Amino acid sequence: MAAGTPKSFSTCTSPNTPSSPKKGVATSIAVSSTLSECDYLDISGFRTLAVKPPASVTQITVYASETPTGTYVIVDSLGASGVITVVASKWNVIDPAKIAPFSYVQLLSNQTVANASVLAST
Predict the structure, then answer these.
(1) Among 45, 52, 65, 85, which has the highest number of CB atoms less than 10 A from its own CB?
(2) Residue of 50, 101, 55 whose CA lies nearest to 77
(3) Are 105 and 41 in contact (CB under 8 A)?
(4) How far apart are CA 100 and CA 84, in angstroms?
(5) CB-based contacts of 22: which residues, under 8 Å, 6+ apart?
């Protein structure tokens, strides 16, 4: 796959089974202020990850795990206590290298349940 070409990735809602979105198409995921209501993403093998939160979301906290159903911990390397200030309704790039060696992430928002768009590439 050529550099910069989007690749499909798996999303799932805990503890449901993953779905595979179409290659190169932004995927809608649930983000929430309650971690158990957030979808999780398999980000293994990606070099870029972008999230476009809804209009009301201004901060995202990134949690990561080694397995889809494992314990999710805050990723401090992305911001103070894992909190990233994002621009609502705009694409915000997250560096997956700062999440390594974890393969799965959940995005906790500063708002109640909403949908965000996610796009990743290899």
Answers:
(1) 52
(2) 101
(3) yes
(4) 17
(5) 8
Global confidence as pTM: 0.79
Q: What share of the chain is helix, strand, coil (3-state, %, to 5)?
A: 10, 40, 50
| Residue 80 located in a structural domain | yes
The model's pLDDT over 39-67, given as tens digits with 9 standing for 90+, comes to: 988 888 787 888 999 988 999 999 999 99
1, part of any domain:
no
The tokens describing 101, both together, are 């060696």
* pLDDT higher than threshold 50 for residue 84: yes
Query: Are the C-beta atoms of residues 52 and 115 closer than 8 Å to each other?
Result: no
Angle at 93 between CA 91 and CA 94, to 5 degrees: 140
Q: Can you give the C-alpha Rg of the chain in angstroms?
A: 13
For residue 65, what are its two tokens?
Answer: 């795990």
Range of the domain at 108: 11-121
